[in-house]
Amino acid sequence: MRPLSSVPAPDAQAVADWKHLYTDARAWTPLLAEILRRERLGTLDSVEVGVPGSNAVFIVNGRLVVKIQWPHYLDDLPRELEAHRLLEPHREVRAPRVLAAGAVESELTWHYLIQERLPGRSLGEVRGHLPRRDLDTIASALGEMIAVLHALPVPTAGPLTGDCEQWFGFLQAQVERAAQHHAPSLTQAPHLLSELPSYLAGAMPLAPPDFRLAVLHCDLTADHVLVAEREGGWRVTGLIDFGDVMAGHADYEWIALHLDCFAADAALTQRFLRSYGYGALDEAFPRRLTAYSFLHRFGDAGFVLGAVGGPRAVGSLAGLERRLWGPVLTG
């Protein structure tokens, strides 16, 4: 191993400006070259910035995806690796193969993950240009894939362990912080902010006490679904970024899926859920999913309300649930 002082990597001062640093390919080029050298994956010929997220992600030499963990999210990498280990026998989910993982020591410890680059473009790039029949096909295929993911046995040891009690504890913590968390996005809708605590309390517990724990992707956005044009139409070619994976209740998964991946298109979400095998939707579905919309780890009230026309478009959270999730229930 090289002496720590000679390992070229961003320092603590640079990391303080993370939002600018993680998309600056030049700042990471020396470290990426060192990672390739250590993993015997060749020399560094080209670097492209991947889709911006919480971590620094780069497409290297056109064929590798290298994720460098933000030091504040060090717990994410072990869970992500465990998810890929569980998915390895299930290639129908089309998750990328992990080629290497490790850490480089410099002034900071830089944990990294190297994966194969899957073919295709993000659904978010092309969704507005796809024929409806292709969107329907994509929704159905994705439903089948997520059903496989959710059917994986939750490990009894390691970074992806969990149980129902732990899940309800997570939700309770989210309830307690919800008003403060969403207040900046609800400045134009104080009536919704004042209603939020009682609304969430009335929606609990959101799952039966003995629900089946599932392995959740937790970030099924349009950026994380890859599609490509094949003979006969556009098809799903990959499901990426398992950095937020956790064990929990399946309904939590539909927030990013409906609001982002399908842009609140009720018919696509319905098609997905049928393909997934969800079964009949109960009358409490809209309220349950509206509550989860405000309890999601990355939830933002402004984004949720944007799906129905903005914070002034609804007079109550009951009105929001009718507009946002009611069509999924009624068709």
Task: Give me the secondary-structure topology.
Blueprint lengths: L11 H4 L2 H4 L3 H15 L7 E3 L6 E5 L3 E5 L7 H12 L10 E8 L3 E8 L4 E2 H4 L5 H20 L12 H19 L7 H14 L10 E3 L8 E6 L2 E7 L6 E3 L5 H8 L4 H11 L8 H11 L5 H6 L10 H8 L1 H5 L1
Antiparallel strand pairs: 1-2, 2-3, 3-5, 4-5, 6-8, 7-10, 8-9
Question: Concise description?
Answer:
This protein is an alpha+beta fold and 331 residues long. It has helices spanning 12-15, 18-21, 25-39, 76-87, 123-126, 132-151, 164-182, 190-203, 254-261, 266-276, 285-295, 301-306, 317-324, 326-330; strands at 47-49, 56-60, 64-68, 98-105, 109-116, 121-122, 214-216, 225-230, 233-239, 246-248.
CATH class of the largest domain: Alpha Beta
Give the DSSP E fraction (strand runs of 2 or more residues).
Answer: 15-25%
Name given to the CATH homologous superfamily of the largest domain: Aminoglycoside phosphotransferase (APH), C-terminal lobe
CATH topology call of the largest domain: Aminoglycoside 3'-phosphotransferase, Chain: A, domain 2
The assigned CATH architecture of the largest domain is Alpha-Beta Complex
Largest sheet: 5 strands, antiparallel
Category from helices, strands and their pairing: alpha+beta
Compute the number of helices: 14
Order of helices and strands: HHHEEEHEEEHHHHEEEEHHHHHH
How many strands in all? 10
Measured between the Cα atoms of the first and last residue, the distance is: 60 Å
Q: What portion of residues is helical?
A: 40-55%
Unreliable residue runs: 1-5
| Adjacency order of strands in the biggest sheet | 1-2-3-5-4
Query: Given the C-alpha coordinates, what overall shape results?
Result: globular
How many structural domains?
Answer: 2
| Overall residue-averaged pLDDT value | 94
Rg measurement, Å? 21 Å
